[in-house]
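Provenance

Sequences were taken from public entries as deposited. Structures were produced by running a predictor on each sequence independently, with no templates supplied. The record for NADP-retinol dehydrogenase from Equus caballus is shown for reference.
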Amino acid sequence: MRKMLSSGVCTSTVQLLGKVAVVTGANTGIGKETAKELAQRGARVYLACRDVQKGELVAREIQTVTGNQEVLVKKLDLADTKSIRAFAKGFLAEEKHLHILINNAGVMMCPYSKTADGFEMHMGVNHLGHFLLTLLLLEKLKESAPSRIVNVSSFAHHLGRIHFHNLQGEKFYSAGLAYCHSKLANILFTRELARRLKGSSVTTYSVHPGTVNSELVRHSSVMRWMWRLFSFFIKTPQQGAQTSLYCALTEGLESLSGNHFSDCHVAWVSAKARNETIARRLWDVSCDLLGIPVD
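Predicted structure for NADP-retinol dehydrogenase:
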């Protein structure tokens, strides 16, 4: 049953010897499986993790399974812009190239809280953290082109709205909807980034991995119960990683930059996710919140 409902497999045979990849949240779930496959194909892979100790265990596991010793762990806390800047500074000092950036990490349905910089946790980690990381690494991606950026979003974006007057959830807050809002932001960021990167040979895609058995639901007892109840309909992390891998590896996707993918095919997005005005405004507001000059 699970296999039947998990259509979409990355069939690319592309090898990545000499290529460099960064995967956020690579110490568990989809991120771990994505990193493992990239390493299997010969890439030098950075596991960008908040929990370095857990990341080191995963790195050794991937090294053993793939035979690729070029699997490195670096501290990255997306809830702290100082950590993001430190990661980027260290990476840029070490590496001459970056060919694949997988913005995979995320939080879901956590109680109301704020990041170190005062951002609502979902918007801060899922959108603003990856927004900042991507912009800090963007010149390296351009220098290494052709290169790709994959942003992991969700079908939940259909319920999302960008409330610019309540971006930090201080006026009203719902844990479930906050997640949806942040996933909509991922798609809007991808579309606007693709527009700005046109002609640069850096392409970007957003993906819905499917309903996956992962640690993402750890904050919701209801979701954990539903995951167990409907376990036959839920993807494994390995299955959930397929669309991220498809967008990172498949040849000939350049003309589809900015599109959203699910089960390794272009997927329909909500009207809000196609709104270029909202996408551009979100870009400008994000830059303002992060102290980045708006161009």
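The beta strands are 20-24, 44-49, 71-75, 100-103, 147-152, 202-208, 260-262, 265-266.
The first strand starts at residue 20 and ends at 24.
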